[in-house]
Amino acid sequence: FRSVFSTIINGIEDQAKGRVSSIAVSASPNLQDINAELRKRDVRTVIALGRNGLKVASALDKQWGVLAGGVLSVPEAQAKDFAVNSLAPDPALLFAKLKSMMPGARKVIVVFDPRQNDWLIRLARDAAKDLGIELQALEAQDLKMAISKYREVLAGADPRKDVLWLPQDSTTVDETVVMPLVLEECWGRGVAVFSSNVTHVKRGVLFSLYPDNVELGRALGRMALSPNSSWAKGVSPLREVRLAVNTRTASHLGLNLDGRRLRFDLVFPEP
What we know:
four-stranded parallel β-sheet, 11 strands, seven-stranded mixed β-sheet
């Protein structure tokens, strides 16, 4: 995380032309000292990176506008007071990339925990409608329910038009149980899977979008330089992205990506 945050800060500094003060916060920071330091440095806007950064920023004096980045999701009750830039890729970008790789895709299936991703699925429904895709979103609030949903939908999935989406969801995308099940079933049935987690591409998922941390920093810098009144409060998905693809999986699915004029930032298996 330190490396990721450092790269994001580089992007912020590039956009803000150096008008940036960085303050590393501990797990138990002294809020009085941080408030005093911000006033001393004549800070106008606070960009909070990571869950701990947001926790600290939300407890500061209310004279500063707060932008948040480097977090996956924030409870909606908390997010309404801030502009939160999530690390969860925008479903509209994911679905558009899917259609560019698989023009025949007609249905996206996703199993999600509404406590974590209700906000993301609302965006996904709109994105799917705009692209003429059917979204089958199945709720699961525990691992047992998630596994049951996966078995049910994969048993009836049509590999010619149905695709599985794995969001970043600790309940429904368990790394030790769900991932082996999904990868084995989908490989055997010829069903494509894409993910919001780039590490899954190495394991056999077709593609993922992941953060372009420098561009994310620049985006946060642009927002910080704009009036607070122009900020969209609540959680926004990640739009500063790069593309990772598994060419072995694409070949297994019979996809010819060479003719799609796609630029891949990360390719597995590694050449």
